[in-house]
Design brief:
By secondary structure, the chain is α+β, with helices and mostly antiparallel strands. It has a domain of 221 residues: Dipeptide-binding Protein, Domain 3 (Dipeptide-binding Protein, domain 3). The chain is globular and about 70 Å long.
C-alpha cells in the first residue's frame, strides 16, 4: 500500500485560527478589485528548497505551487484533483493510468513541456530518492512511459483508483525540464525552472524569494499580480511588527493567539480566517509505552483517551482559536467522523479511565514519559503539554515526565523507537480521508509505532481501490471506529488558516482551502 510520511518537515508552527472564531472583516477580505502590482508576503516558515524531488515540507510546497505545474492540481477552493498540465487523465484499467497533455505548454525559459519531461520528472524523483523528498509516495508506481509527446502512461503495481490522482496533484510531483535538471542530483535552488505562474527571479535562503510573472504560462489560473515576494522572519513578533507597519501586504504563518487578538484591532489591516485541516495528536509507540502486556498497554492508551480534555486545551492554551478534534480525519474532509467522541465522550471521564486500568490490573499511578518539541509546532506546544500533564495527573492515575527537544533531533528520534509517547502534527499531502488514515494506522505506517490491525489494513486497501462513495464511506467509518477503540493515536485539536492582510489587498481568502497551499497568484491589490 502507499504509505506516506506526511508534511512533518520544515518549521511548521501554529496557524491556529478559524473563520468561526476570527470572522472575516475589512477591505482585506474582499474578493473583488485589485490592480496587480507587487505582493509581499511575510512568514516565519523557512523552506527546504525549490527542487520538487528534494522537498516534502509545507514551506517549500508554498514556493513550488507558484513556480511549477503538476499534471493535476487542487484548484483554489476545491478539494478534488482537476487537470493542470494535463488536458485529461483517467484509468484505462485497474493498473494503467493515462494522461494527455495540453497543447502549447512551455517552461519559463520558452522551451516546450512534453510528456518526456513528465516521465523524466517521475523517474528522476524515484531515482534520486532524496531523504527530504517524497519519492516514498510513488511506491505504487511500477513504471512510467511517454509513447508520444502528448501522452503519459503510468503502470501501477495495484489498483489505486481513489488515491493515485491525488498523488499526481502533489507539489513534489511537479514537472521539471529534462534538458535542464540533472537526472541524478538536485538542481540548485537559484537555477530552477518551471511552467507555473511565476519564475524565480532570486532566492536568498532564510531571507527572501522573489517571483516574476512567467510570460510563458499557459494554464487556467493566470496570476492576478505582476510580481510577488516572500520575506522570512525569525520570530512571530518581528512578522507582526512588519505587517503592522505596512512593510508587508500579507502576513501568513505564524502568529500566537495573543498576536492575532492584537492584530484584529490594528489600523489598516484585517485578520482573515479560513477553515483548515491542520491537526495535532499524541502517538503511542506500542512497543515502548508502559504496560506489562498488550491488554495493559491498551488499557493505558484508553485511559489517556478518557482523560484528555480537548476543550480545556483549546480554551486555556489557544484562546479558542483551535477546535477539539475527535478523529484523526479532521472535520471539513469528506468521510470524517467523531469516533473518539463516540468511544470516550466529548469531555474527560476519570471514572472510566480508572476502570480501564483496574480491569487490566495496571498499578497506578502509571509512569508516563511524554515528549514534545517546543518550537516546531508553535510557541504554544510547551503550554499545551503542561496542560496535558496537569490533566493526566489530576486524578492520580498517571505520573507524567515531560521531555522535549528541538525538531532537528526530535523527528528522527520519535520515528526510530526512542520515545514511548510523543507529540506530532499533520498537514495534508492531499485533501482526502486516506491521507489522515493510512499514514497513522496501517501496519507499515510512517510512525513506526508497531501498531498493526489486519482489519484496518484490509479496509484501507478497499477504500483506495474504489471511487464508490458509499463503499469508501463505510470503510472509513469502520477504520476510524477501530482506531478509536485501540487508540494508538489520540487526536487533540484541529486548526484553521489565518492571515493578517493590509487594506486594499484582495483574494487571500481564495487560497484558504483543504489543500493548504498559499497561492500567491490569486492575490491582487489596488
Amino acid at each position: 500500500m502507499t504509505r506516506k510520511r506526511g508534511l512533518l518537515g520544515g518549521p511548521l508552527a501554529l496557524v491556529a485560527a478559524l473563520a468561526l472564531v476570527l470572522g472575516v472583516a475589512g477591505c482585506g477580505g474582499g474578493g473583488g478589485g485589485g490592480g496587480g502590482g507587487t505582493i509581499i508576503r511575510g512568514t516565519t516558515d523557512v523552506p527546504v528548497g525549490l527542487d520538487p524531488a528534494g522537498v516534502y515540507d509545507l514551506p517549500s510546497w508554498d514556493l513550488l505551487v507558484n513556480v511549477y505545474q503538476p499534471l493535476l492540481t487542487i484548484p483554489p477552493g476545491g478539494n478534488k484533483p482537476v487537470p493542470d498540465a494535463a488536458k485529461s487523465c483517467g484509468f484505462k484499467n485497474s493498473t494503467t493510468y493515462e494522461c494527455t497533455m495540453k497543447d502549447g505548454l512551455k517552461f519559463s525559459d520558452g522551451s516546450p513541456l512534453t510528456s518526456e519531461d513528465v516521465k523524466f520528472s517521475f523517474d528522476r524523483n524515484v531515482g534520486i530518492n532524496s531523504p527530504t523528498g517524497a519519492a516514498s509516495l510513488l511506491v505504487d508506481m511500477k513504471s512510467v512511459e511517454a509513447p508520444d509527446p502528448k501522452t503519459v502512461v503510468f503502470h501501477l503495481k495495484r489498483a489505486n483508483y481513489a488515491v493515485w490522482p491525488f498523488i499526481l496533484s502533489m507539489q513534489s510531483m511537479d514537472i521539471v525540464p529534462s534538458d535542464v535538471f540533472p537526472k541524478d542530483k538536485l538542481q540548485p535552488d537559484d537555477k530552477v525552472i518551471g511552467s507555473g505562474q511565476y519564475k524565480v527571479a532570486s532566492y536568498e535562503p532564510g531571507q527572501q524569494t522573489v517571483f516574476e510573472k512567467n510570460p510563458n504560462y499557459k494554464g487556467a489560473y493566470p496570476a492576478k499580480n505582476d510580481r510577488a515576494i516572500i520575506q522570512y522572519f525569525d520570530k512571530p513578533s518581528a512578522l507582526k511588527l512588519a505587517v503592522e507597519q505596512g512593510d508587508l501586504d500579507v502576513a501568513y504563518r505564524s502568529f500566537s493567539p495573543t498576536d492575532l487578538e492584537d492584530l484584529k484591532s490594528a489600523s489598516g489591516l484585517s485578520v482573515i480566517g479560513g477553515s483548515g485541516v491542520e491537526i495535532r495528536y499524541i502517538v503511542f509507540n506500542t512497543k515502548l509505552q508502559p504496560g506489562d502486556n498488550d491488554a495493559q498497554k491498551l488499557a493505558i492508551r484508553r485511559a489517556v483517551a478518557y482523560t484528555i480534555d480537548r476543550q480545556a486545551i483549546a480554551q486555556n492554551v489557544y484562546d479558542g482559536t483551535v477546535k477539539p478534534l475527535y478523529s484523526m480525519v479532521p472535520q471539513g474532509l469528506e468521510y470524517a467522523s467523531e469516533a473518539w467522541k463516540d468511544e470516550y465522550g466529548a469531555g474527560p471521564d476519570p471514572n472510566k479511565a480508572k476502570q480501564e486500568l483496574q480491569k487490566a490490573g495496571v498499578q497506578t499511578p502509571v509512569d508516563l514519559e511524554l515528549w514534545y518539541t517546543p518550537s516546531h509546532y508553535g510557541t504554544g506546544s510547551a503550554d499545551e503539554y503542561a496542560e496535558i500533564k496537569r490533566q493526566l495527573e489530576d486524578g492520580g492515575l498517571f505520573k507524567v515526565t515531560l521531555k522535549s527537544t528541538e525538531w532537528n533531533q526530535y523527528d528522527e528520534a520519535a520515528l526510530t523507537d526512542k520515545y514511548p509517547v510523543f507529540q506530532f502534527g499533520w498537514f495534508p499531502d492531499y485533501p482526502d480521508a486516506d491521507d489522515y488514515s493510512a499514514p497513522f494506522w496501517a501496519t507499515d505506517s510512517f510512525l513506526n509505532d508497531h501498531y498493526s490491525n489486519p482489519q484496518i489494513d484490509n479496509l484501507l486497501n478497499e477504500e483506495e481501490a474504489t471511487t464508490d462513495k458509499a463503499k469508501r464511506a463505510k470503510a472509513f467509518e469502520e477504520v476510524q471506529r477501530l482506531a478509536a477503540k485501540s487508540a494508538p493515536t489520540i487526536p487533540v485539536w484541529q486548526g484553521g488558516q489565518v492571515a493578517a492582510v493590509r487594506d486594499g489587498v484582495h483574494g487571500v481568502e481564495d487560497t484558504f482551502d483543504a489543500a493548504y497551499l498559499f497561492r500567491l497568484w490569486v492575490i491582487s491589490k489596488d
